[in-house]
Every structure is written in C-alpha cells, then in structure tokens.
Write a structure and sequence with these properties.
The chain is mainly alpha-helical. The protein has helices spanning 14-49, 71-82, 85-89, 96-130, 135-160, 171-194, 205-230, 251-254, 263-266, 268-296, 300-322, 327-352, 364-368.
C-alpha cells in the first residue's frame, strides 16, 4: 500500500520524482502480469473445452518450450498420446492432423504460463535491484512468485490425473488449479491497484463488507464452475429455472453418494445446483450492494458496474446452459467470469484503499555516482 505525497511536479525533490516514476513503472508491470494471467486463463478454458489438456503427456519445464518440428517428432508425440485412456476410449481413430490441433491448444497454454512467469520474475528482479519496490511489498511479491511456481506444479499434478485412468483430469485438481490461478491473479491485481494514487474517502462499513463478500463468493463460484466443467455437468439438466424438474431437486438425488460430502464434488446434479444457488446469491448481493452505494453516495459507479457485470454473467450462464454449453458460449461464460471477478477485486480494493508514504530509496547506481 503506497502513497506518493501530493506535490507540484516542478517543486518535487529529485528523489521524490524518481520514486513516483518507479511507482508508475511497477504498477504498469503488475497490470501487464495480470493481463498475461488473464490470457492464460482464457486459453486454459479453451484447452479444457476442446478436451486438449491431455495431448501432451510429459512435463518438460525447459525443453517443452519447443514444439515438434518434423513429422517424425509429431508422430512420436502422437504415439505417446495413443497410449493413454483418453485416446483409446474417446478419440480412437483420431488422425495426426486432428491431434495437432489439440496439441497446439495445450502447448499454447503451457507457453503462456511460462511467459507469464518470466514477465513477472525478470522485471521484479530489476525493480528490486533499482530499489523501486517498497519494503512492505517485497514479501508479498515474493509470495506471489512462489505461488505461481507452485501453480505450474499443480498444473502437471492435474494433467497427470488423466493419464492413467479415465478420459479427463480429476475435477478436484482442475478446480484447485483454476482457483489458485484466480487467487494469484487477484493478488497481483489488488497490489497493482494499491499503487494507484487515490484520494481517500470515508466508506460505510456495510459497503466494504458487501464488496468483500461478493469478491469471495465470486472466487467460490469460479471453483464451482471448474467442478461443473470437470464433471461435464453443463451438458445435463439443461432447463431453467427448474433443475431436474423442480426448483430444488429431491434429497435422494442430491445426496445419493456415500459419504455425503462426495456429492458436493462428484454428483453432477449437486454441483450444478450449488453453482446455480451461489449465482443467485451473488446476483442478489450485487444488487443490494449497488442500492447501498446509492444510499451512501459512495463509489456508486463501481457498485453499479459490478452489479451490471454480475447480471450479464448470470444471463450468459443461463443461455449457455439452455444451449447445452456449446464451446463459443461456454468460453464466453468462462471469460466473462474472470472479467466480473476483476471488477469485484478492483472495486473492493478501492473501498479498502489505504495509502502510506512511498519512501524514496536511493538506488545502487546513484550511491556510486
């Protein structure tokens, strides 16, 4: 949390001007890293929807950057894929050209993840060397970096779950992978937003609590959406507002797996029902939050934009469900989910904004000068 002390540009000491320049550069870097994660999430969603995630059956963090070039290399990758259950049970008879399409989706997703790591780490090390990052942010940014590294390992852990049994990855691991990526994205976006100079305003506690609740519920909704995707639950129960013939399905249909807690993760009806209920809760809370902002005349614009985005996302979700989740609609629904989450994170940070003095640091080159 950083504040540059207000001062006319021409009267600023050189060190303060340099610090404000550093602040803007760090903020731009963080927003760029967040944009890279957003793109990676979108491509990851397309990879999942096209059933392409298991087309690369090995994890090669370094050499895997290069795709196959010759026909013999392509054939070798295809042969490896033919050995896993997904090919034998789902894609038997697939030709090499069709395999290449699925391979490029997964390869692009992995490449974007690697590039995102580089976009985060290299400028981070440079800014540390220049003394451009406040001491209070360094620990947080290192934690974000190591979380990103763990995300790569979680991604392979997810993929490995579909290589030996079944025709897709574990929905447990898929949901954890997506939720961790979204949490990292939110942490970067929040930190970047904290570096935006903002005049502090008195905010009613109810408004702040409402914004936090919406952001948390949206993260939960992303987790539930991943479970829906992992179970292909969007291909079933394609009616609305009724689900399985009623507003609330019969208990014996919702809780038939033993032990009962497994229904929350493995029962397609229960998972989709939970996804719907949380969507209703988020929409209602967003509307009430906008009304609260109107009454208090604080951050009305952000609250209204958030409520509008949640409403649009809910409508798109219904349309996607009724059409049995075709890839274009399903991908748009996933992409808009990240957009809505982004709006919620930024809005919540604005309501919680705390500014401290940005302590100028003399860089190593300046000390030597």
């Amino acid at each position: 949390m950083v504040r540059a002390v207000p001062c006319k540009q021409g009267l600023m000491p050189k060190a303060v001007r340099a610090s404000r320049t550093h602040l803007r550069a760090v903020r731009l870097w963080l927003f760029t890293a967040a944009a890279m994660i957003f793109l990676t999430l979108v491509v990851g969603g397309a990879t999942r929807l096209t059933e392409s995630g298991l087309s690369i059956v090995e994890w090669k963090p370094v050499t895997g950057v290069l795709p196959p070039f010759s026909e013999s290399e392509w054939q070798a990758e295809f042969t490896k894929y033919q050995a896993i259950p997904q090919y034998r049970e789902l894609n038997r008879g697939m030709g090499l050209d069709a395999f290449k399409v699925t391979y490029w989706w997964e390869w692009s997703h992995r490449l974007l993840a690697r590039l995102t790591g580089a976009v985060f780490l290299l400028p981070f090390l440079y800014f540390l060397w220049r003394g451009a990052i406040p001491q209070r942010l360094r620990g947080r940014l290192w934690a974000i970096f190591f979380a990103g590294g763990a995300l790569g390992a979680v991604g392979w852990w997810m993929v490995s779950s579909g290589l030996s049994q079944g025709v897709s990855v574990s929905q447990y691991r898929l949901a954890f992978h997506l939720t961790l990526a979204s949490a990292i994205y939110a942490a970067i976006l929040w930190t970047a937003q904290q570096l935006v100079e903002q005049v502090p305003k008195e905010v009613p506690p109810s408004l702040r609590v409402g914004a936090v609740a919406i952001a948390v519920l949206l993260l939960l909704q992303i987790y539930l959406g991943a479970l829906v995707a992992g179970l292909d639950a969007g291909l079933a129960f394609n009616t609305w507002p009724l689900i399985d013939g009623s507003l609330v399905p019969a208990a014996e249909r919702l809780w038939f797996i033993a032990p009962a807690w497994r229904n929350l993760f493995e029962n397609a009806l229960t998972v989709q029902f939970d996804h719907r209920m949380v969507a209703y809760a988020v929409w209602l809370l967003a509307i009430l939050h906008a009304c609260d902002a109107f009454r208090g005349r604080r951050h009305v614009r952000g609250a209204v934009i958030l409520a509008g985005a949640v409403t649009l996302q809910a409508g798109l979700g219904v349309v996607t469900l009724l059409h049995q989740a075709p890839i274009p609609l399903a991908l748009a629904h996933q992409m808009l989910a990240i957009v809505v989450f982004s709006i919620a994170v930024i809005h919540t940070e604005q309501l919680s904004h705390r500014m401290i003095v940005y302590a100028p640091q003399t860089t190593a080159p300046e000390q030597n000068a």
